[in-house]
Design a protein that fits this description.
This protein is an alpha/beta fold and 305 residues long. Helices cover 48% and strands 11% of the residues. The chain is built from ten helices and seven strands.
Length: 305
């Protein structure tokens, strides 16, 4: 039997959430609550549970947090804005973009010379890039996305998938080199691909919130990939030991000091790479936050000079 994809799993989650909302609405209708109010209450109950889960991620991440530099410390109002942004980003990704998405390729014949491969993170798929892809189109940058499956496979198992997709992108665009933009685990998968197939075709690897040294929250995740992302796991140490300075100089690590999944947050810092820090942004929101996406595009434009 073929393992379920992130698309299928999240569709099942949506069905469960819908059933829960209808059950709440039905119970309220039995108590004489008007239909419109019962339906709103059912939907609100599901949204509230999702919000509590989101808030709990921030609490768990805070227990293993690295020190936040003074320049990135934020107040109560900024924390509320960050929570709202992260909650909305999580809801859109898991309830809309991922359940509907399939990997695709867009080639701009008159566009930029270095195309971009988009590599998503743990438990996700190509739908994560719904906010970046229109910006790449506007900049006339050819790009392709990929769905890393099976969801719970070892990270090295994704290297052949990335290799095949990179070859397809190069063939379609005529480019000798590509850039990679990767979120979370996707950054580790891209590094594992370079270890297995070489880095000569990589003009730049931009990672967003990648746990380069692991994350304390990985112990709560199922799958071989989650085990590999535990703090300073043997797999992570072996990956780091395999990299030369020529590999590291191609990497740009964008991360947030308020990451609610990667903790400690400075796990995203790597020696020998360009580390770019942000504040007041959550983990999922890295793929939609305007400040972060502006930096991604700035780095990609450097390659077109």
């Amino acid at each position: 039997m073929k393992p379920a994809s992130a698309r299928t799993l999240l569709r099942l989650v949506l069905v469960v959430q819908l059933a829960a909302a209808l059950l709440v609405a039905w119970a309220l209708l039995r108590r004489g609550v008007p239909a419109w109010a019962a339906v709103l209450a059912g939907a609100g109950a599901v949204a509230l549970v999702r919000l509590v889960i989101n808030m709990n991620n921030f609490v768990m991440a805070a227990r293993a947090a690295s020190a936040t530099p003074p320049a990135y410390r934020i107040g109560a109002a900024a924390r509320l804005r960050m929570l709202a942004e992260e909650f909305c980003a999580s809801m859109l990704v898991t309830s809309w973009h991922v359940p509907r998405s399939r990997a695709r390729m867009t080639v701009h014949a008159d566009g930029a010379r270095v195309p971009v491969l988009l590599v998503h993170g743990y438990g996700c798929n190509s739908g994560y890039w719904a906010h970046l892809e229109p910006l790449l189109d506007r900049a006339r940058i050819s790009h392709a996305s990929i769905d890393l499956e099976p969801v719970a496979a070892g990270i090295d198992d994704y290297a052949p998938l990335i290799e095949a997709r990179a070859r397809e992108l190069c063939a379609a665009t005529g480019a000798a080199r590509i850039a990679i933009v990767a979120h979370s685990m996707g950054g580790l998968a891209a590094r594992a691909w370079m270890r297995a197939y070489g880095h000569a075709r990589v003009a730049r690897l931009i990672t967003l919130g990648t746990p380069h040294h692991g994350t304390a929250l990985a112990r709560f995740g199922p799958g071989a990939n989650a085990a590999q992302m535990r703090r300073d796991s043997p797999w992570l140490r072996a990956l780091a030991a395999s990299e030369t300075p020529d590999v590291r100089v191609r990497i740009v690590s964008l991360y947030t000091h308020h990451d609610n999944i990667v903790a400690p947050q400075d796990s995203s810092e790597l020696p020998g790479v360009r580390n770019v820090a942000f504040g007041g942004v959550g983990h999922v929101a890295l793929g939609s936050n305007p400040r972060v996406l502006a930096e991604v595009l700035r780095v990609l434009r450097e390659l077109q000079a």
